[in-house]
Design goal:
By secondary structure, this protein is mostly beta strands. The protein is built from no helices and eleven strands.
Length: 118
């Protein structure tokens, strides 16, 4: 199966920035970032199809940017203007079809914690 390894999480003050990375072991058609906090349902943050089409949650539009370095299958999430409500465990996910673009992904990373303080 596809292996995904996230990195780049950490602690930052509100208004700051972080850049998350996710290295995939092989090609996947679609990839995305999801987040979850204790006691709450997992939510989609941003997804991408390898051809370049992207989609964002309303809560992060204008602040987050998802991108893919095709040569080495590395997915990025640039997070700017971070808010305390962005605090969560962020998971990288991937799929071999467009389903992951819609939130149904086959492969998941272990997560990287993002903490935003006020």
């Amino acid at each position: 199966q596809v292996q995904l390894v996230e990195s780049g999480g950490g602690s930052v003050q509100a208004g700051g920035s972080l850049r998350l990375s996710c290295v995939a072991s092989e090609y996947t058609f679609s990839m995305g970032w999801f987040r979850q906090v204790p006691g709450k349902e997992r939510e989609g943050v941003a997804t991408l199809v390898r051809t370049g089409t992207t989609d964002y949650a309303d809560s992060v539009k204008g602040r987050f940017t998802i991108s893919l370095h095709n040569a080495n299958n590395t997915l990025f999430l640039q997070m700017n203007s971070l808010k305390p409500e962005d605090t969560a465990m962020y998971y990288c996910a991937a799929g071999r079809s467009w389903l992951c673009y819609s939130g149904s992904c086959e492969y998941w990373g272990q997560g990287t914690q993002v903490t935003v303080s006020s």
